[in-house]
Specification:
Elements (H helix, E strand, L loop, with lengths): L1 H10 L1 H68 L7 E5 L5 E5 L21 E6 L6 E8 L5 E7 L1 H53 L14 H51 L5 H32 L6 E5 H18 L3 E4 L6 E5 H17 L6 E9 L2 E8 L30 H11 L3 E7 L3 E9 L3
Parallel strand pairs: 7-9
Antiparallel strand pairs: 1-2, 1-5, 3-4, 4-5, 6-8, 9-10, 10-12, 11-12
Helix pairs in contact: 2-3, 4-5, 5-8, 6-7, 7-8
Length: 466
């Protein structure tokens, strides 16, 4: 399962681009958020340290001016005024005895005894961990003029709580960034790859229908993808011109050949009718000429029908056509042939199905499909004509138990004059081409499923009659 999704990811260009965009966006946003958080934390630490140094300088100046009583009076005055900027103040004499100690009641969880009272050189920083949580009491010490050590401390509770709120907010922002990154990546990728999708759809339409008049929407604004569309349109125009020229030439040749072939057949048939049988070789030659003339006439007529259907000039007499009628007509037409070859020909078509189409052309479609199925099915096999409704469409299927079509031949069976394996090829190689052209002219589609040694199923989908 994982390998399947990995292969799917490797083929899905749009998904890969969206994931890469979202990944870069998320990583960049997360990095910016972490850097901002670190800068904020450093800024808060510096602010607290600066505050402690300011308070340390104030108490040191007060002690120099009035000694211990002045410090005590200043601290009591601060408490009486309700100052919220509380700090710990500790005075340690030269003999390591504590002369003064002031600690807010909420800070009793810190082990103040860990302050060893060593004589600092300059301002000395120490940290005392709480015994109940992860907060810290930061203490700065300074030696005064008479050898007394002044210690001022401040807890990190407020800073830690603020940073915790920032981390929570940062987590919510990262989730929002992930969602926005994925949504933005998908939206931008779909927008950026839309010209490529249009190019793909155009190529697919040309491949499935054979129509070369489709074009990719291109504005010619200099964008690389847009430029690709312009070049592709120019290539299609060139191909359409070449193919149109070849088709016109082929149609002209087919049209021009019909008259001399018809004359040749008429003269051969007249000579055959007037011959008195005294020259069997001549009669055989004339009969062969008539047969070959009929074959060439059928070839030319079919090719012209295909060209008319593909160019949209085929005249169709559209009406409501009951499917079971043309199915039964086809079975009546080929029933004797199927019996001679030992093949069971039957119908499983649902009743009361009606399509909109040309009755004669639809009979021609079914006749070609059944004829092909009988040709490639051995004695003892069966050919079944089925029909069923699927929404607003009717699917007519001709299924046989014949030799099947090799996978290499499946993509080409709709091509003109293609007959696959020469050892098994029969007919002109135009039957399926004509079927697809007529069905497409009716606004339907033709599909085939086949497995070598098991048989073939050709499905014709037509719109229902209103």
């Amino acid at each position: 399962m994982i390998e399947h999704w990995r292969q799917r990811m490797s083929r899905a260009v749009g998904l890969r681009v969206a994931v890469w965009y979202a990944g870069v966006f998320i990583i960049t946003s997360a990095a910016i958020g972490l850097i901002a958080y670190q800068l904020l934390a450093i800024s808060l630490v510096r602010r607290d340290h600066d505050l402690l140094l300011v308070r340390l300088a104030e108490y040191a100046g007060t002690y120099e001016r009035g000694g211990l009583p002045a410090v005590t009076q200043a601290i009591n005055a601060e408490r009486a005024s309700g100052s919220r900027d509380s700090v710990m103040v500790r005075l340690v004499g030269g003999g390591a005895e504590v002369q003064f100690f002031s600690l807010p009641p909420a800070w009793r969880t810190y082990d103040i005894a860990r302050l060893d009272g060593r004589r600092p050189y300059g301002d000395d920083w120490e940290q005392v961990q709480s015994t109940v949580d992860t907060t810290t009491l930061e203490v700065v010490s300074r030696s005064l003029w008479d050898g007394t050590i002044l210690q001022v401390g401040r807890t990190t509770i407020e800073r830690d709580q603020f940073l915790a709120q920032v981390r929570d907010l940062l987590g919510i922002m990262i989730v929002c960034v992930v969602v926005a990154g994925l949504a933005g990546g998908i939206a931008l990728t779909r927008s950026a790859l839309q010209p490529l999708r249009e190019l793909r759809d155009t190529v697919r339409d040309i491949t499935e229908t054979g129509r070369l008049d489709a074009r990719v929407a291109a504005d010619g604004d200099g964008d690389l993808v847009d430029e690709l569309g312009v070049v592709f349109n120019a290539m299609l125009t060139r191909i359409e011109t070449l193919v149109g020229g070849m088709r016109d030439a082929l149609d002209n040749v087919a049209h021009d050949l019909r008259t001399p072939i018809a004359r040749l057949r008429a003269r051969a048939e007249g000579a055959l009718a007037s011959a008195r049988g005294d020259d069997p070789a001549a009669r055989d030659a004339l009969a062969a000429c008539v047969e070959e003339a009929d074959r060439v006439m059928a070839l030319l007529t079919t090719m012209m029908d295909i060209s008319e259907a593909e160019t949209g000039t085929m005249r169709l007499s559209l009406s409501a056509v009951p499917v079971d009628e043309i199915v039964h007509d086809t079975i009546d037409l080929y029933e004797d042939t199927a019996d001679e070859r030992g093949i069971a020909l039957s119908s499983t078509a649902a009743p009361d199905l009606v399509v909109r189409g040309d009755r004669q052309r639809l009979r021609q479609v079914l006749a070609n499909l059944v004829d092909n199925a009988l040709k490639f099915t051995d004695a003892g096999g069966r050919v079944t004509i089925g029909a069923e409704a699927r929404g607003d469409e009717v699917v007519i299927a001709v299924e046989d138990t014949g030799r099947g079509i090799p996978p290499t031949d499946l993509p080409r069976i709709w091509d003109r004059l293609y007959r696959g394996d020469a050892s098994h090829a029969q007919g002109l190689g135009l039957g399926l081409s004509l079927v697809r052209a007529i069905v497409t002219a009716h606004g339907g589609r033709a599909e085939v499923e086949s497995e070598v040694g098991k048989g073939t199923r050709v499905m014709v989908t037509l719109p229902k009659s209103a």
